[in-house]
Amino acid sequence: MTAQTPPFRDSQLPFAKRIDDLLSRLTLEERVAMLHQFGPAVERLGVAAFRTGQEALHGVAWMGPATVFPQAVGLGATWNDELVRRVGEAVSTETRAMRSRDDRVGLNVWAPTVNLLRHPLWGRNEEGYSEDPKLTSAIATAYTRGLRGDHPAYWRTAPVLKHWLAHNNETDRATASSSVRPRVLHEYDLRAFRETVEAGTVAGVMPAYNLVNGRPNHVSPYLREQLRTWTDQDLLVCSDAGAPSNLVDSEHYFDTHEEATAASLIAGVDSFTDHGTDSTQIVERLQGALDQGLLTESDIDAAVRRQLAIRFRLGEFDPRLDPYADTKDFDTPAHRSLAREAAEQAIVLLKNDGLLPLTGQDTRIAVVGLLADECKLDWYSGTLIHRSTPLEGLYERFGADRVDFAEGVDRVRIKTSAGTYLSVPPADDATDEVRGAEGALDPALLAGRTDLPPLTTDTTGTELALIDWGGGVLTLRAPDGRYLSVAEDGFVRASADQPGGWVVQETFRLEPHESHGSDESQKSHESHGSHAGGHLLKHIGTGRYVSVTADGVKVADQNPEILELEITERGEDTVARTAAAADVVLVVAGNDPHINGRETEDRTTLALPAHQQRLLEAARAANPRTALVITSSYPYATDPADLPAVLWTAHGGQAAGTALARVLAGDVSPAGRLPQTWYASDADLPDLLDYDVIGSRQTYLYFEGTPLFPFGHGLSYASFEYGNLVAHVGENSVHVTFTVTNTGSTPADEVAQLYSRAVTPSVSRPRRELLAHRRIHVLPGASTELAFELPLSAFEFWDVVHGIRRVEPGRYELLVCASSEDVRLRATIELDGTPITPRPVLELGLNAADFDEQRGAEIVDRTKVSGDAVTPAQGNHGSQGSQESLGNTAELVYRGCDFGPATGTVAVTFEVSGEGSLELALDGGPVTARLDVPATRGPYDYTTVAVPFSATEVHDLHIGLRGPVRLAHVGFSG
Questions:
Q1: Which residue, 782, 785, 749, 754, is CA-closest to 768?
Q2: What is the pLDDT of residues 942-970, one digit of tens each?
Q3: What are the residues whose beta carbons fall under 8 Å from the beta carbon of 584, sequence distance 6 or more?
Q4: Which residues belong to the active site?
C-alpha cells in the first residue's frame, strides 16, 4: 500500500478495518445521505453512488429483457433445492451481466419472498414458496445460495429477504395489524426467515408494510431481539417503498416524520426507500432527528456500517479481486434449458384416471381456454426474450395439424345510445411496444401510449374480444391483439400488449345505467344475460366512465355513455364445437397475474371465474375426455369429479408452453408437489386477517377438514413403493433411512416427504409437520436409499411459560409420505427432554400474550418500543388504543396454572391500561372474581390493580376482558 492509498482501499486488510477507515473519512452529511435508497457518490473519496434494491424474484425484473423463470410459488412446487439453487445462480449471473452494460441494475437484490402462504386468498400468493416454514426456508436458502455465489469473501449479489413479518394481506396492508401469539411467531412466522439467515446466504431483510401486534414492522423490536442474534455478520435492513412515511401519514403511529425516522433507524432500518429517487426528504428527516436529539452519530454510523459491509462483500472496492466482475453470461443456452427444466419440474399432476400421457400417434388435441395461447407475466417479471404458450408448445411437440384451438372469448360489438358502435381506428404505422422493455427503476411510473388514435364510433364498429376475469372485471381486446387501455389524457385506445402496470389501465366493469350512483352499481355482472340492455362501462383504473366525445372515446366523470353489448359469438359455443371434434380436450384456465389477486389486491373467493367455468363445462359436455390445466398464481376450488385429469402449474415463465407439452406427451413424468393446501371451498378458510394458525386450525399443520388436494400432493406416470424404514435416536439427532423403489415402467422423479407428529403433546401441536424432503430420480425397477439426519431441534416447540424452544419428552411418530395425507411408512421414537410442568404463576406470573387459547382477543403493543398486551379485538387493525364500545369482549385461557398448596386466597395484580373490566374463573366455571378498571390517560399509560382470588393447586385460568382494556401482565402472590 502506497502512502497515498487509504486503508479502505487495501485489500489485504479485513473488511471490518477497511469499513472503520472509510467511516472515519466520511462527513456526517455524507453518511446521512447514504441512508436513502439512492445514496449519492462521494467523489472526493472515489466512492460511487449506490442504490439498494433490485427485484429478482424469478429472474431480473423491471430492467428490460432477461430470462424469466417460473413464479416463486412454482419454484416452491418443484420441491427441488438444488434446481432452485441453480436458478438463483442464473438470475444473479444475469444481474451481473446486465449491470456491466446498464449501471441502473443493482446488485443488492430484493429476493426471495419468504412470507408463508398461510391464506390462499392473499393477493401476493405467487411471490411465496409454501405454506410450510420448513419447505419455505429450504427453497429460500437454496435460492439465496445461488444468488450469493460460493466465493468465501465476495458475493455475486446480496439477497434481501421479504417481507418481515407475518404479512399475508393486501387489504389495508399499510394499516392492518397481524395478531401473532408467541407460539405462532416462533414456530411459524419467524422460522422461515431464521433458518435461511442462519445458513449465511442472506444480506438482510425488508420489513413489511403491516403492523404486528399493534406495532409497525419498520419499528419492530424483533429486528434486534431475533434477526440480529441469528448471525454474526452485518445484515442490511431496507425499508419497503414509502413505508417510512406511512408511519406518520397512514398509520399515525408517530406525530412527526423525524420521530418516525429516528425510531426506524434505532429499531434497525438501515436504508430508507421513500420518495423514489429523491433523497432530500429522508435526509432532512434524519438531520432533523439529529438536531432534536432523537438520534446520535453512532446511530447513523451503525446503519452506514451495515450498508458498507454489503458493498465490500459485493467487491465494489476490490474490482480486480472480484471473481464476478467480468460476468457476461446472459440468455445463454444453459439458462434457456434451465428455464424449461424448472417449468417442467413445477408442473403438478393433481388427478389422472389414465387420460395422460397423450401417447397416441394420431390423437387429435383440442386446446381451449383463455390462457391456452398466453404466456403471462407478473409484476416482478422481466421482459420476455423467448415465449412459449401452451398452444405453441403443443404445436411444436405434436404438430400443428393435430392441434385445434379455441380461446373462448366472447366476441362483442359495443353499441352507443346514438346507434353507432365503438370502433378501433387503424394504426398501420404504429410500432409494436412491450411494456417495460427498456427497463425502469420504477415501472409504476411508466405511462400509457398516446401515439395511437383513440377509439371512435361508426356504423359498423369493431368486434372486440371480451374476457370476464371474475368479479365483473373485464378486458376488451382489438382484433390485432392490443387491449383497450386508458392513458393519462383519458382517451381510450387499443394500445396495450397485455394488461399490466401498478394501476392496471386495461380493466373495465359493466354497470346497469339505471343503478348509476347506487350501491347496485358496484355489483358484478358475470352472466351473459346481464350484458343485454343499457350499461355504463366503468374504467376501473380511474374510476371514470366511458363517454363519447367529438375528439374520440374517453373516460370522464360526467356524461357517461349508455352502451349495449351485442354478442356476436359466445366463447362456450366455439369451445364446444372445437372440443366435439377432438379426441382429447385440454382446457387451460387460470388467472392473469395483474388482475383479481396481485400486490395491493386480495382475492375474494377460491372459485374459478364464471366465464372460465362456463368454458370448462362446455368442453366437458361436448367431450368427456377433457383435462383441466390450471395455470395460476394460487389455488382454486374446482370440483374434479367429472374430469379424468387435472394439472396445475404456476405461470411458468418463458418456457411454460414447451414444458407443459413435454409433460402431457410423457417426455417428462410430472413430479411437482403442491406447496400449499388446496381447500375445497371458501367455507374452509379463516378470516384473511386471522394470523393464529394454531387457534383457527390453518394450513396442513392444523387443518382438520378434508382438502380438495392436500399439501405435498402430486401424481406421477410411474408408481413407487417405500420400505425399510429405520430410525435411530442419537445424542443430538435422529437418523432416518428408508428406500424408494420405482415399480412402474417410466423413469420418473419422486418427492419423498418425512413428517413427524407428537403422539401425546401437552399443548396443541401440528397434526403432522414436515421435517425433510428430497426429490430423486429413479429408473424403472431401481431402488434408492434415502438418509436424513434430523437435529433434535426439529422436534421443538415454543414453551410460552419459560420463553424458550424445547423438546417435550415422549413418543413421536415419524411418517414417510408421498403427500401430507398419503402416509407410506410409520415408526415411533422416544425422545428425552425437560418434562412439562404446570405454570409457576406464583413465581413468574403470566404475560398476557402467553395464553394457550383465546376468543375475541388481539395482541397489541404494550409500548411503542417493545412488549405485548392483549385487548378485545376492536375491528380496527391499524388503530392505536381505540376507546370504542365497552361491549367488546375477549376470553383468555391459561392451561395448568399452579397456585400452590391449599392456602386459600391469592392476591391477583393486573398491569392494565384503557378502561373496562376483568373477570376470573377456574376451569371454565363461573366467574369468581371481577374487577373494574378505571380509565387511564391513554393506551400506553399502564396502572396496576388488584383483587383477591380463591385458588389452590393446579387449574386452568380463564380471564375475561370487557371493554377496550389492555392487559399486559398478571401477577399472583399467596
A1: 754
A2: 999 999 999 999 999 999 999 999 999 99
A3: 355, 358, 363, 364, 365, 366, 623, 625, 626, 627
A4: 240
